Amino acid sequence: MCGILAVLGCSDSQAKRYRLKHRGPDWSGLYQHGDCYLAHQRLAIIDPASGDQPLFNEDKSVAVTVNGEIYNHEELRKKLVNHKFRTGSDCDVIAHLYEEYGEDFVDMLDGIFSFVLLDTRDNSYIVARDAIGVTSLYIGWGLDGSVWIASELKGLNDDCEHFESFPPGHLYSSKSGGFRRWYNPPWFSEVTPSVPYDPLVLRRAFENAVIKRLMTDVPFGVLLSGGLDSSLVASITARYLAGTKAAKQWGSQLHSFCVGLEGSPDLKAAREVADYLGTVHHEFHFTVQDGIDAIEDVIYHIETYDVTTIRASTPMFLMSRKIKSLGVKMVISGEGSDEIFGGYLYFHKAPNKDEFHQETCRKIKALHLYDCLRANKSTSAWGLEARVPFLDKEFINVAMAIDPESKMINKDEGRIEKWVLRRAFDDENHPYLPKHILYRQKEQFSDGVGYSWIDGLKAHAAAHVTDKMMLNASNIFPHNTPTTKEAYYYRMIFERFFPQNSARLTVPGGASVACSTAKAVEWDATWKNNLDPSGRAALGVHLSAYDAETPLGNKPSKIIESIPLMMEIPGVAIHG
Which intervals hold domain Glutamine amidotransferase type-2 (predicted)? Predict the structure, then answer.
């Protein structure tokens, strides 16, 4: 992922792009027009030789700084026959689309993106963010009337009186002075759909989503932990890589990457899948102390105090550094599957298909605050890009149109979580994965890297946060008051880096069990006393669930010895 920073209407400031240099080590670009500045830190994935930014139209009257990938750029270029392109960059189409269609072109883009477009002819500008919020983006306002746009909080928090997360699927126009939603899919209304489940239609839609993300001019790989989602991503990539432009440039041997504590479930499962698919597999180990030592850097980079996000971001942060050191600049990951298909274990308790569907809608709408934020910033911290085919616009439309009755867990009929996805890739003649991997139980990434990781974090926090501190937590942190010592510990670090009230408001809060929304906690009365983001908090569902009698702050990493191999460990990019 690249880094963008724009300062609009500020006469005495230059864009402080070097705050985001970690996101784009390949090029630094700065454009000034009057009191407007567009800055860009480039991570070159497509057309590394000539795609430096900002990008322009023919006469340079329209300038654009973009973070993202436009997968249908070749198709869009064919619609712009009267335009001359300066580069081969996939993002070069944006300025020309604006010339042809005005502000209404954003929905034509198939990809992930955050951009600022400046029209110097009337000094107007537009800002847009991709449909789900895979790329990170913030907007802020200065006392001098300036508007700031940045890929990360640290690009604007010291200069703005107020700032906030830029909403996904929205466009901000200087002409109207406000936001409007450009992304309006049928599922957004949360009305229960009724399209019959067709496994082949779902399979083709996901294969297409993965294939389009093989567009790259640099070395790449897949994040693989041996769970359903990451394994499907790896399997499809390995199946269709040969014959692509990427294979011609870098070879058809797929590289896969996994991280975990020594002996963790992820490492074993990923190794088995890698052997089955024939990938060049890279296994990275970390210790609990390694992770604890990185916590401050992780919070600085991912810019949140949300407990489950920090738990999962830390191993991903450590792994991303190792991957980048091997010369790899892009990885394909598996975020989004659990939100779309109800893969979290608490979905076992969904009372009916309407509530099941509404919860999946709520989870998708919140992804930019959790998994997308983690995947984007954990990798971008080291100049690595993560692509997420499960969050492809077309695939989401197909998957979210399925009658949710088919998605619901039904033990009597042998349907476990994400059954519709598993069934779609259960091909006897040309198997994508071994059966026991295809039907392994869901495990959240922060659990799968090793249960002792979370327990180690809790113990470390307990050593630094006293009972006396917790008694005053509501006075020190009245907004999103931390209820555990682990949450208090993370909050202290976050507030040191980002002390502004606007910063703390960018982080979501509310009750949650096993990554549920606050609304879904109501599905089971026992959950109200066991609020924890770990999948093991799904009492009565997870095979290694916490003991119901044990207070949550003291839950041990008790792993039942008889756990079968049918235990899903999601991809390093897949968890919630």
Answer: 2-177
What CATH number is associated with residue 311? 3.40.50.620
| Burial degree of 87 (CB within 10 A; 0-12, 13-18, 19+) | middle
Note whether residue 554 is domain-resident: no
Q: How big is the CA angle at 384 (ends 326 and 441), to the nearest 5 degrees?
A: 90
Same domain? For 212 and 110 the reply is: no
289 and 435 part of one domain = yes
Dihedral over Cα of 384, 389, 391, 393: its sign: positive
Residue 488 lies inside a defined structural domain of this protein:
no
pLDDT band, very low/low/confident/very high, at 501 (cuts 50, 70, 90): very high
Say whether both 168 and 201 belong to one domain: no
Give the pLDDT score at 249: 86
274 in the same domain as 411: yes
Residue 2 annotated as catalytic = yes
Q: Which residues form the domain of 220?
A: 187-446
In one-letter notation, the amino acid at residue 72 is N
pLDDT tens, position by position, 509-553: 988 888 889 889 999 888 877 766 554 555 556 555 544 444 444
For residue 35, say whether it is annotated as part of any ligand binding site: no
What pLDDT sits at residue 540? 56
Q: Any idea what the CATH number is for the domain that residue 103 is in?
A: 3.60.20.10
Closest C-alpha to 291, from 406, 111, 445: 445
Q: 568 pLDDT exceeds 50?
A: no
Tens digits of residue pLDDT in 409-442: 998 888 999 999 999 999 999 999 999 899 877 6
Could you tell me if 135 and 221 lie in one domain? Answer: no
- Determine if residue 576 is labeled as part of a ligand binding site: no
Q: Which of 446, 465, 496 finishes a domain?
A: 446
* 333 labelled binding-site residue: yes
Indicate the residue among 412, 427, 446 that finishes a domain: 446
Q: Would the annotation count 290 as a binding residue?
A: no
pLDDT tens digits for range 168-218: 999 999 999 899 999 999 999 999 999 999 999 999 999 999 999 999 888
Known binding residue 334? Answer is yes
**Domains contained in the chain, number:** 2
The confidence score (pLDDT) of residue 24 equals 64
C-beta separation of 332 from 237 below 8 A: yes
Select from 110, 82, 77, 81 the least CA-distant residue to 92.
77
Mark out the alpha helices in 254-347 (DSSP H runs).
265-277, 288-302, 307-325, 337-341
Encode pLDDT of 31-57 as tens digits: 889 989 998 876 666 666 665 778 999
pTM beyond 0.85: the answer is yes
Backbone angles phi, psi at 114, to 5 degrees: -135, 130
Which one of 2, 160, 258, 372 is the catalytic residue?
Answer: 2
The candidate with the shortest Cα–Cα distance to 366, out of 304, 318, 321, is 304
